[in-house]
Amino acid sequence: MLDAVGTASLGWGVIGYGWVARDYAVPGLLAAGGRLVSVADPDAGARRHAAGLGARAAADLRALLDDPEVQAVYVATPNHLHRAAVEAAAASGKPVLCEKPMAASLAEAEAMAAAVRRAGIPYGTAFDQRHHPAHVAMRDAIAAGAIGTVTAVRIAYACWVDAGWAADNWRADPARAGGGALMDLAPHGIDLVDHLLGEPVVEIAALTQHRVQRYAVDDGALLIGHTASGVLVQMHVAYNCPEGLPRRRLEVLGTTGQLLAERTMGQSAGGCVTRIDGRLGLSAPLPVPEAGASPFARQMAAFARWLRGEEHPRLFCLERDIHTMRLLARAYGEASCR
Ligand SMILES: NC(=O)c1ccc[n+]([C@@H]2O[C@H](COP(=O)([O-])OP(=O)(O)OC[C@H]3O[C@@H](n4cnc5c(N)ncnc54)[C@H](O)[C@@H]3O)[C@@H](O)[C@H]2O)c1
């Protein structure tokens, strides 16, 4: 399969053509020079939209997986359906980029990982925030020693998701989502810490709340953890934070300075990053190359390069993604809402 990818524009099949696929991933893959070949979605409106872009569209995934023009598969169904789609794509020998969280449970993610290993296909979980220009600039600044020895990462990542947020709000259903704000938003933070510091979070614990929204999943959580070398990690994620409030903040603290990213976490480019000097307390903007580039376009381009062997082998990494799922399971195992 890797040989077949070549340097021509990558032909994509998309399983699950809802909000994130339609508004971010497909515009991203097209901007990255890819082709939308085929879409599988049971929703007729989704299929009509995809057909309007020139894609073949069917309710079922069989035609997409049998299509020789589909060289890579992007999975963006609700969480509990990731497993079936990834297993089917693996059995057909196609590389897969699957949305986060990898699955609705650790057991499902482990079954997916087994199928991927058995088939020997390239697999990546779609952590688009790795590819946000601001986060790449922060990672490079940290590696270059811009804030000294890193001591802590603090993240606030929140939004408002009420029971009627979507016509069929699967995010509020524990069986389909696998959890609430913690399951949906914390994976981004866990992965981002690994990306920024080059080492994983190894321990984690959480408190969850069911404070505002009228559904069965958590609408907020606080997580604490540390990385392998001892960097402390603190995360507040929430579905109960109104739009007008500051909701997206990422701080990396070190012995000679601090990086503060505001409004960078999310699907779009933008936001700003400041470096605060540890001795004088002065703030200066951190230069961000290609600041306006879409994280999704960069992710799709990076995945295509990775398939061709032109990226760091661990830019996408099944074992790291399974580790993230283990951390989420551990966080929920220890979570309490009292
Ligand atoms: N990376 C990000 O920033 C980001 C943002 C939003 C969502 N996501 C993830 O993307 C996934 C989809 O989220 P969304 O907000 O787009 O959801 P959505 O409900 O808007 O879209 C899901 C789509 O899947 C389709 N679908 C349902 N069953 C299907 C099946 N059996 N086969 C094919 N398609 C099927 C639905 O008809 C719908 O069009 C979730 O895993 C979510 O966590 C990631």
UniProtKB/TrEMBL annotation:
<dbReference type="InterPro" id="IPR050463">
    <property type="entry name" value="Gfo/Idh/MocA_oxidrdct_glycsds"/>
</dbReference>
<dbReference type="InterPro" id="IPR000683">
    <property type="entry name" value="Gfo/Idh/MocA-like_OxRdtase_N"/>
</dbReference>
<dbReference type="Pfam" id="PF01408">
    <property type="entry name" value="GFO_IDH_MocA"/>
</dbReference>
<dbReference type="Pfam" id="PF22725">
    <property type="entry name" value="GFO_IDH_MocA_C3"/>
</dbReference>
<dbReference type="InterPro" id="IPR055170">
    <property type="entry name" value="GFO_IDH_MocA-like_dom"/>
</dbReference>
<dbReference type="InterPro" id="IPR036291">
    <property type="entry name" value="NAD(P)-bd_dom_sf"/>
</dbReference>
<keyword id="KW-0560">Oxidoreductase</keyword>
<protein>
    <submittedName>
        <fullName>Gfo/Idh/MocA family oxidoreductase</fullName>
    </submittedName>
</protein>
<feature type="domain" description="GFO/IDH/MocA-like oxidoreductase">
    <location>
        <begin position="136"/>
        <end position="259"/>
    </location>
</feature>
<feature type="domain" description="Gfo/Idh/MocA-like oxidoreductase N-terminal">
    <location>
        <begin position="11"/>
        <end position="122"/>
    </location>
</feature>
